[in-house]
Design brief:
- The structure holds 2 protein chains of 2 kinds.
- By secondary structure, chain A is mainly beta.
- In chain A, 0% of the residues lie in helices and 52% in strands.
- Chain A has no helices and 12 strands.
- Chain A has strands at residues 3-5, 10-14, 19-21, 24-26, 32-39, 46-52, 59-61, 64-69, 74-79, 88-96, 106-107, 111-116.
- In chain A, strands 2, 5, 6, 10, 11 and 12 form a 6-stranded mixed β-sheet that branches. Chain A has a 4-stranded antiparallel β-sheet with strand order 3-9-8-7, with no helix packed on it. Chain A has a two-stranded antiparallel ribbon with strand order 1-4.
- Chain A is globular and about 45 Å long.
- By secondary structure, chain B is mainly β.
- Chain B is globular.
- The termini of chain B are far apart.
- Classes of the chains: A mainly beta, B mainly beta.
- The A-B interface holds A 32-33, 35, 37, 43-47, 50, 52, 91, 95-110 and B 2, 31, 33, 35, 42-43, 45, 48, 50, 55-58, 88, 90, 92, 97-100, 102-108, 110.
Chain lengths: 117, 114
């Protein structure tokens, strides 16, 4: 069975601080995909990144970076120089590569990030 | 804008009633997923359709049903509504049916059952 754990529930930082959001996952499959989504106060879910289980290279996109470590089953997300617009709920999610019920996204509980001016 | 549309944006109805939520996937996407987001359960997968056929079911109640039409839009029908059905319902679409592909979410329909 798939499981995603986001142990941090709420994080509050001051603008320009760096912040790391943790994600730990469980799966029995060797082929799987990890995702991060952002849910701003307006409510929509915005896709941020997809990473497959065979690619452990870290990825950087502007102020965002992701660290994938299979050895610790973690897929952490760092925001550098945070901004007020980064305030949102962030979800980590997992899917397995196969079709059927395993293709669904299993989400963590989400981390509420508040960035204060 | 993800390209996925959902209507209506808000829905307020009474217990025992039936409602229909509508979703249009992104152009070119064949797969549609429905998710429910509630405070106590978080984001939960309900059901998936691919090119008109049901592919997978999650924790979907028997009172709920869905379908995907030939034009690929999908509808989620919720009947005999209870207070606990109040939630944000998301539709997501992806190009394929496997977990390989990223899912793009619509803006959601907020259902309030009174």
């Amino acid at each position: 069975a798939q499981k995603v754990t986001q142990a941090q529930t709420e994080i509050s930082v001051v603008e320009k601080e760096d912040v790391t959001l943790d994600c730990v996952y469980e799966t029995r499959d060797t082929t799987y995909y990890l995702f991060w989504y952002k849910q701003p106060p307006s409510g929509e879910l915005v896709f941020l990144i997809r990473r497959n289980s065979f690619d452990e290279q870290n990825e950087i996109s502007g102020r965002y970076s992701w660290n994938f470590q299979k050895s610790t089953s973690s897929f952490n997300f760092t925001i550098t120089a945070s901004q007020v617009v980064d305030s949102a709920v962030y979800f980590c999610a997992l899917s397995e590569a196969y079709t059927g019920a395993n293709s669904k996204l299993t989400f963590g509980k989400g981390i509420t990030l508040s960035v204060r001016p | 804008d993800s390209g996925v549309t959902q209507t209506p944006k808000h829905l307020i109805t009474a217990t025992g009633q039936r409602v229909t939520l509508r979703c249009s996937p992104r152009s070119g996407d064949l797969s549609v997923y429905w998710y429910q987001q509630s405070l106590d359960q978080g984001l939960q997968f309900l059901i998936q359709y691919y090119n008109g056929e049901e592919r997978a079911k999650g924790n979907i109640l028997e009172r709920f049903s869905a379908q995907q039409f030939p034009d690929l839009h999908s509808e989620l029908n919720l009947s005999s509504l209870e207070l606990g059905d109040s939630a944000l319902y998301f539709c997501a679409s992806s190009v394929g049916e496997a977990g390989t592909y990223e899912q793009y979410f619509g803006p959601g329909t907020r259902l309030t059952v009174t």
